[in-house]
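thread from #wetlab-drylab

HS: before we spend reagent money on co-crystallization trials with zinc ion, can we at least see a predicted complex? here's what I'd submit
DV: go for it
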Amino acid sequence: MTATNHALTGACIGLSLGNPWLALPTAFVSHFVLDAIPHFGFKGRKTDAEWLPDKRLRVMLAVEALCCFAIVLLLFLAKPHAWFLAAVCAFVAASPDLYSLPRFLYYNKLTKNEVKWNAFRRFHQAIQHESVWGAAVEVAWFFGVLTILATKI
Ligand SMILES: [Zn+2]
């Protein structure tokens, strides 16, 4: 799923559970549960070499970074109970995708260090179900978690 949906889900988990020992692992696991749900991706399954240098992806990543910042800013300004835990959970829930950063840098020719495909990367890739039509799932999920978040702020 998009980083925005991962972060919103993590924030909801943090606000709902309130306990870092429960919320942080749950937020981390939520990333893989959401990735296993059919979701948005450009042109379905493609190789990294084809889709990572795609300009649309770079634009989408910039928008996503702004949305994630806005989520944390909203939590900071509203300061609901356990807001800081919710902000950390938002980061933790989205963080497994940061492990893709070396691939992004390599295929965009920003580094010459080729990425090794370890068990984690293969697992993360294998659970993805991406398609353009998955955008409908993303939109539904976005408004669902946003509604839940609104009840907690
Ligand atoms: Zn992911």
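DV: Residues 3-152 form one domain.
HS: ok that's useful, forwarding to the group
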